[in-house]
């Protein structure tokens, strides 16, 4: 390279020379940015000198270096503040070489190792430089998992634009540990079962890590080319023999070994043949030799009867080699053997040994003892060997006597050596003898048989044999027996009784071998005897046997059910068992059913498994203050009996858990507030609310101040309270709580209210009435104004009216004149003063104006209806301002307009506003006027109104009435004379005259539709053809409410006969409901389609149906009707849950006709109600169902085609008689 300054060249050449002399293979390149130096010649020498002084100082062969003056170093030149230090680290550990430098600008730190730059990018991140900012700059070198190649001399180099500074070198030494191998987890010994498996683990450590292998004797079990380092697991399977396995660990520093012993366990050997050392009638004592050198855990003794196919019985856990086996049968041969058991299992059994137990007296009596007569003095007795002879039977003893009450030792005895039959002679004829038999061995006598009876009479049968009784059911017992040895039995006589003290009953049966006795009581003990009869007489009866009938369900419920409520959530139920004679078995348990009637939980509950010894049970976790229906049932093993009569009881009261609702607080004035509330939610009242408490306290800065106060109102229906005596302009907190007899409940959330400032007191008020229908009101300010007055407010009006006139005045006004003051009326005046807070308390004064005669006449005089001889008149009272007092009566003045001076005056007392004028002339026009009276006299007559009576030969409709009232329609009806033939239509006005319909009077009825449910309507029937204004009739009716919204449900498809079943609605019980009708309406076809003539049954005129209902029952019509008409298919007093349409049966006198193929139908339900008056309205809470279904020709399936809206609560009324028929659908 060309160097700009020749003075630098000698120094560079000297540096290269000495580096090569020091065997350094690297080339040194020095790049000088000469143009950036302020003093090129001097600074170049300084940089080169510093570089050479760093490297050449560490070369022993170079004894001098070039130095420059410190003051010649440029400003900002890097400085090594902390250089690397000598460090020793173990291999695989982390080494960190520290370095910190400063300069201006901040230098960049790099590292050199053995004079070469350290490359941190080619070692997978093992060597990295750690950098951090600040002053000085830090740049440590971190070497992870250090290796021997990392050892060397390290230098830290700081470089910036001012130059480069090298730190003093520091050596890093990497130390390698040398540890001979050792076992960190040596192999362990194992015991295994024959054919078992085991894994042996061997782990060795050292430095370097050793290789590990397994050997069995001199055989290598681990391949040489697959020898693991540090850990080796030997897997052994199906091990049959014990062996020693050697684990060998080896490295360059040595070889070590460890041995694992694998022991294969073995089952014990069979013990020696057992030896019998002692024998009794029921036990055998055995001894035996262990036969095993190894310890035995215990022994098992096996035994069974010799030559038996049954398995051995075992006696487990025998710890010794001597044992007595008890519980054996006398004089029986047994086979014994012994099995040894160790911790591996049981070994094979020993050789068996056989032996016989000793004799014993028989433990059972001879079997099937029979006796029969050979002659009148000799009997033949025979028997069979006992079931348990317990030895060799040596003989038998037969005892007999005529007095069985004597002890058997006093009986006569007859010994039999070796036979099962004997005869006994020299007996007394015509006597009954009792006979017993026993067997004996060489050890002693066995038990006696039950005595049998025999009558010493020729031809009389002996006792039946094997008489048994077996219960078959709770009411029957099967008796069976074996006939006595006689060929002349004609019948049997059965004697039985119910219990020890029951009356004996006798039954004669055919000569069979069994008899079923029926009609018995459940779970009862019966006693039986049986005797055989021949033509010669009745033989001796058998010994008495007993049997008990099976159990049955109890036939009566528990008795004396009582309930108490010890707490608000529990009920104690007490009872007594059913009567003993009706328990029909052993009572095994009781159950309790209960259901809440008025609570939130209305599901039925049942408590099962109550002990039969219990006579009470505590029902817990119930709802508070809730009425429950409770019943108790007794159970036997067969099942439950009937439930007891239900007991109603309410749980005890408790404090309300819910606060009063909708608590509101309103400031009334400066010292009082009004607190209002609603009662707590019913489900959280938990008792009868006795009253309410209002708690309040004064508040300052959001905190209570002073003592809380309480106001109590002891009224259950109280819903507000005025709290007075408060301080003006003060904030209070109010809470309300309800209380029962148990205490007060939860409080409502606090409500904050501030009282207003003080308002003025009552003003002073003076009222003066004048003669000009006016009143002068004068007032003076109140005594307590609590600040400047801002005005007054006056409210006044008639006392008998609800509306008052309100006026406000300024603070300077002090009087007012009220006009239009009516005579004969009382007026109320209320005056209050107002300040900045508001209006104060009102001063109230009343005045009464004296009465006078009315100054006005009655209003709106008109005729309601008329006949040929009468007119019904209606009018309204005079105007309020013109009445001048209380109307006491009216006077009607009328006259024939053709007679000028003969008016008739009629008083109307009491003061009714309607009057019927009778005794009039037919087809005559009358002039009518009316006036009102007070206590002071009559007022003026009204303007005259003319009315004309009907001609004698023209009679208008009569008996205008409501025939049927539905939810949205009313059926009106009237009557006309037989000769009535007028073409002039009638008019019906309703809805306050807003609606008018015309109808042919000869139709005698009209269905008014599209009305509102549960609404009152007035209907006027009029004939406008008369020149005098027409005739009128008026009736009123109220439509039924719309309260139900359910429909019936079709259940499945139709069957082949075209029938379909529908599920009918549930209806509440109502004593006024007298029956239900199922109505079916066939739809007519038009142009191939079925037409539904109305959307609701409200629009259907049900005349034919009403006639059928009125007749109650009709004759059954045979054959098809030509015209399709609605018909009643069924009548029920109680509506069933299901009904099948078209089943051709009769229900309540009505035929449920078969549905025709291809025809479409509508059906609904009618309910009949009865009430005493014609003008009355009832609600029927049922559902109206309009369902359309079709019966197809091909499949005869009925399907729902159309479902209309639900209609409810419709009433039909016949008002012709006192007994009214009402139909709801």
From TrEMBL:
The keyword Disulfide bond applies. InterPro entries: FN3_dom (IPR003961), FN3_sf (IPR036116), Ig-like_dom (IPR007110), Ig-like_dom_sf (IPR036179), Ig-like_fold (IPR013783), Ig_I-set (IPR013098), Ig_sub (IPR003599), Ig_sub2 (IPR003598). GO terms for biological process: cell adhesion; synapse organization. Residues 270-360, 365-461, 463-552, 557-654, 659-758, 759-852, 857-952, 956-1042 form the Fibronectin type-III domain. It catalyses: O-phospho-L-tyrosyl-[protein] + H2O = L-tyrosyl-[protein] + phosphate. Residues 78-173, 181-263 form the Ig-like domain. Residues 346-368, 546-570 are annotated as: Disordered. It is found in: Cell membrane; Cell projection, Axon; Cell projection, Growth cone; Cytoplasmic vesicle, Secretory vesicle, Synaptic vesicle membrane. CDD domains: FN3 (cd00063), IgI_2_RPTP_IIa_LAR_like (cd05738), IgI_3_RPTP_IIa_LAR_like (cd05739). Keywords: Cell adhesion, Cell membrane, Cell projection, Cytoplasmic vesicle, Disulfide bond, Glycoprotein, Heparin-binding, Hydrolase, Immunoglobulin domain, Membrane, Protein phosphatase, Receptor, Repeat, Signal, Synapse, Synaptosome, Transmembrane, Transmembrane helix. Its EC number is 3.1.3.48. GO terms for molecular function: heparin binding; protein tyrosine phosphatase activity. This is Receptor-type tyrosine-protein phosphatase S.
């Amino acid at each position: 390279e060309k160097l700009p300054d020749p003075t630098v060249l000698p120094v560079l050449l000297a540096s290269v020379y000495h580096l090569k002399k020091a065997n350094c293979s690297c080339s040194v390149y020095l790049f000088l940015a000469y143009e950036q130096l302020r003093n090129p010649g001097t600074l170049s020498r300084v940089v080169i000198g510093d570089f050479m002084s760093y490297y050449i100082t560490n070369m022993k062969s170079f004894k001098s270096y070039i130095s420059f003056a410190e003051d010649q170093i440029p400003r900002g030149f890097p400085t090594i503040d902390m250089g690397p230090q000598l460090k020793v680290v173990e291999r695989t550990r982390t080494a960190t070489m520290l370095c910190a430098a400063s300069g201006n600008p901040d230098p960049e730190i790099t590292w050199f190792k053995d004079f070469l730059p350290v490359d941190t990018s080619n070692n997978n991140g093992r060597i990295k430089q750690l950098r951090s900012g600040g002053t000085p700059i830090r740049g440590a070198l971190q070497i992870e998992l250090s290796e021997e190649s990392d050892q060397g001399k390290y230098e830290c180099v700081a470089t910036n634009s001012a130059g480069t500074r090298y730190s003093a070198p520091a050596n890093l030494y990497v130390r390698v540990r040398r540890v001979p191998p050792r076992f960190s987890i040596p192999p362990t010994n194992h015991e295994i079962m024959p054919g078992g498996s085991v894994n042996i683990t061997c782990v060795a450590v050292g430095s370097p890590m050793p290789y590990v292998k397994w050997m069995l004797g001199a055989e290598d079990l681990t391949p040489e080319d697959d020898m693991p380092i540090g850990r080796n697991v030997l897997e052994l399977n199906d091990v049959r023999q014990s062996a020693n396995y050697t684990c060998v660990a080896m490295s360059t520093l040595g070889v070590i070994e460890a041995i694992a012993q694998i022991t294969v366990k073995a089952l014990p050997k069979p013990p020696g043949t057992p030896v019998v050392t002692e024998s009794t009638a029921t036990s055998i004592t055995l001894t035996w030799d262990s036969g095993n050198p190894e310890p035995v855990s215990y022994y098992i003794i096996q035994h069974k009867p010799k030559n038996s196919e049954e398995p051995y019985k075992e006696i487990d856990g025998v710890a010794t080699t001597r044992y007595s086996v008890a519980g054996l049968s006398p004089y029986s041969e047994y086979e014994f053997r012994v099995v040894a058991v160790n911790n591996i299992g049981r070994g094979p059994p020993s050789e068996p040994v056989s032996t016989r137990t000793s004799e014993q007296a028989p433990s059972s009596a001879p079997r099937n003892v029979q006796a029969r007569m050979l002659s009148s003095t000799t009997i033949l007795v025979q028997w069979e060997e006992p079931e348990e002879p317990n030895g060799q039977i040596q003989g038998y003893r037969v005892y007999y006597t005529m007095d069985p009450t004597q002890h058997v030792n006093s009986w006569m005895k007859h010994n039999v050596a070796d036979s099962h039959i004997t005869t006994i002679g020299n007996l007394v004829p015509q006597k009954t003898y009792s006979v017993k038999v026993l067997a004996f061995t060489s050890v002693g006598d066995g038990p006696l048989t039950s005595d049998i009876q025999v009558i010493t009479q020729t031809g009389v049968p002996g006792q039946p044999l094997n008489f048994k009784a077996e219960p078959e059911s709770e009411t029957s017992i099967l008796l069976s027996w074996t006939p006595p040895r006689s060929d002349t039995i004609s019948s049997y006589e059965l004697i039985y009784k119910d219990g020890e003290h029951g009356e004996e009953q006798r039954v004669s049966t055919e000569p069979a071998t069994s008899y079923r006795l029926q009609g018995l009581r459940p779970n009862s003990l019966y006693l039986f005897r049986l005797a055989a009869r021949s033509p010669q007489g009745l033989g001796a009866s058998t010994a008495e046997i007993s049997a008990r009938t099976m159990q049955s369900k109890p036939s009566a419920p528990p008795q004396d059910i009582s309930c108490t409520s010890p707490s608000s959530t529990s009920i104690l139920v007490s009872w007594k068992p059913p009567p003993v004679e009706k328990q029909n078995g052993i009572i095994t348990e009781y159950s309790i059913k209960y259901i809440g009637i008025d609570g939130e939980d209305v599901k039925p509950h049942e408590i099962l498994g109550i002990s039969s010894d219990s006579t009470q049970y505590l029902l817990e976790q119930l709802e508070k203050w809730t009425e429950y229906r409770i019943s108790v049932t007794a159970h036997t093993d067969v099942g439950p009996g009937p439930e007891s009569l239900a007991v109603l009881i309410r749980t005890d009261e408790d404090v309300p858990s819910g606060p009063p609702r909708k608590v509101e607080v309103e400031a009334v004035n400066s010292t009082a507030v009004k607190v209002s509330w609603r009662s707590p939610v019913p489900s959280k009242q938990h008792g009868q609310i006795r009253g309410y408490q209002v708690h309040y306290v004064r508040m300052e800065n959001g905190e209570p101040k002073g003592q809380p106060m309480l106001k109590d109102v002891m009224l259950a229906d109280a819903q507000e309270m005025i709290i007075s005596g408060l301080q003006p302009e003060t904030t209070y907190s109010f809470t309300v709580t309800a209380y029962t007899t148990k205490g007060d409940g939860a409080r409502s959330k606090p409500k904050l209210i501030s009282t207003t400032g003080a308002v003025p007191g009552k003003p002073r008020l003076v009222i003066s009435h004048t003669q000009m229908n006016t009143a002068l009101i004068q007032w003076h300010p109140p005594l307590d104004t609590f600040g400047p007055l801002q005005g007054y407010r006056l409210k006044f009006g008639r006392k008998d009216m609800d509306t008052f006139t309100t006026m406000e005045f300024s603070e300077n006004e002090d009087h007012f004149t009220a006009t239009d003051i009516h005579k004969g009326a009382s007026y109320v005046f209320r005056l209050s003063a107002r300040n900045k807070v508001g209006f104060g308390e009102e001063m109230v004064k009343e005045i009464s104006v004296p009465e006078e005669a009315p100054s006005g006449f009655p209003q709106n005089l008109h005729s309601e209806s008329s006949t040929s001889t009468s007119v019904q008149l209606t009018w309204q009272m005079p105007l309020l301002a013109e009445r001048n007092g209380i109307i006491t009566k009216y006077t009607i003045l009328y006259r024939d307009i053709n007679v000028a001076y003969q008016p008739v005056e009629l008083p109307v007392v009491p003061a009714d506003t309607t009057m019927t004028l009778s005794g009039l002339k037919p087809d005559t026009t009358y002039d009518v006027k009316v006036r009102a009276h007070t206590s002071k006299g009559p007022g003026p007559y009204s303007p005259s109104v003319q009315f004309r009576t009907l001609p004698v030969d023209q009679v208008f409709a009569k008996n205008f009435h409501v025939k049927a009232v539905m939810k949205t329609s009313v059926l009106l009806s009237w009557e006309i004379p037989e000769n009535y033939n007028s073409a002039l239509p009638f008019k019906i006005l309703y809805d306050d005259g807003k609606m008018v319909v015309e109808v042919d009077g000869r139709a005698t009825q009209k269905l008014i539709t599209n009305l509102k449910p549960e609404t009152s309507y007035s209907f006027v029937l009029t004939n406008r053809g008369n020149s005098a204004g027409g005739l009128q009739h008026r009736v009123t009716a109220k439509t039924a409410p719309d309260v139900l919204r359910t429909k019936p449900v079709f259940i499945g498809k139709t069957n082949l006969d075209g029938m379909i079943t529908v599920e009918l609605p549930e209806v509440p019980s109502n004593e006024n409901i007298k029956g239900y009708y199922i109505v079916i309406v066939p739809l007519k076809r038009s142009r191939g389609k079925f037409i539904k003539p109305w959307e609701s049954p409200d629009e259907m005129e049900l005349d034919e149906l009403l006639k059928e209902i009125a007749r109650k029952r009709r004759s059954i019509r045979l054959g098809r009707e030509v015209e399709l008409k609605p018909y009643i298919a069924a009548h029920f007093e109680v509506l069933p849950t299901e009904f099948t349409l078209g089943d051709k049966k009769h229900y309540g006198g009505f035929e449920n006709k078969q549905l025709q193929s291809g025809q479409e139908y509508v059906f609904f339900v009618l309910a009949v109600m009865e009430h005493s008056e014609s003008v009355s309205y009832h609600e029927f809470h049922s559902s109206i169902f309009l369902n359309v279904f079709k019966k197809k020709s091909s499949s005869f399936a009925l399907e729902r085609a159309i479902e209309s809206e639900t209609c409810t609560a419709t009433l039909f009324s016949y008002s012709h008689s006192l007994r009214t028929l009402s139909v709801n659908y």
